[in-house]
Amino acid sequence: MADIIVPTDKATIQEAVNSASAGDTIILLPGEYEEQVIITTNDITIRGLTVIGVNIRGSNSNDIAFTVLADNINFYHLNIENYYVGAYINGTSIKFDEVHFKKCGAFGVVLSGMNNSVKNCSFDECGLFGMNVGGDCHNICCNLFNKNTLGCIANSLESLTNTVICKNIATVSPVGINLSHSESQCNEITQNVITTDTGLYIFSPYTKIDKNSFQDCKDAAMIINSQNNEIINNLISNGRNGIIVIDKGNKFDRQIIGNMKESCATFADKDNYFNSGVLYNSAIGIRSIDNSNQFQNNAFINVERDSVLV
Question: What does the buried/exposed string (b/e) look like for 240-267 if buried means 16 or more CB atoms within 10 Å of the residue's CB?
């Protein structure tokens, strides 16, 4: 295992990657780097010497800063800006920690493969979404998403399974988390703070949505367009609609929803369960088109109409 210092030992990041062996660490000194780096060697680390000052900045919005076609690659302490995609990942056990993506033309990160981790990163002003995620068994945790044109986290290119999206902050975007691939399933969205126009759009079944905070989502906190999801212990406040459900067989427990201009919860399909919620300071508590939906043990506080069958 060796340290390769750029630009002292090698002039460019790509030269350092080409010369690296498994276990090596590439250390980038503070400065400006304009490269398109392709990584095919397993088990290497690319690390900025400091959190501030290592800037990988593109001049062509069609480029990709890092293309990773290897396994066990670690990235730390980098600032990546003005690429079409900041990082395209198709490998196993890839880790990003304190990497900051800004003004990428499409996505900060396109994530595929399996067992990858994105933590303590930021995604600002990306042209589409901060991330587009597919694959299996990822951990997307403790990141900040801000001012991305379409939304924060998308899942549209390939199916996503067994992935945890937790403790992120998503703000100032049309959508927070958009799991729109119909073959995705068995993901968990937990302990996020979301203040986007629409908080969640879920088109994938068997998703667990737990302990999230939705604030000031002006359109809706959640739109659930799939079956067999488990939604528990979420806090929703201030907006037009709390939860909109347009498929069947979903289970809601212990939601706290308030200050909605229209409805705390709207059910446009049948056989859903909404239990033990607290609904307050809103025009309508629960709105449903079918009497097969079951609503039990809910508390209505200062709600103009507790429930409406339409």
Answer: bbbbbbebbebebbbbbbbbbeebbbbb
Residue in 86, 158, 157, 94 with CA at minimum distance from that of residue 125 = 86
Q: Domains in the chain and their CATH numbers? A: 1-147+164-171 (2.160.20.10)
Could you tell me the sign of the dihedral formed by the alpha carbons of 136, 69, 23, 10, in that order?
Answer: negative
Over residues 230-278, the pLDDT tens digits come to: 999 999 999 999 999 999 999 999 999 999 999 999 999 999 999 999 9
Q: How far apart are CA 47 and CA 28, in angstroms?
A: 6
How much is the pTM? 0.96
In contact, 89 and 116? CB cutoff 8 Å: yes
Q: What is the pLDDT of residues 4-41, one digit of tens each?
A: 999 999 999 999 999 999 999 999 999 999 999 999 99
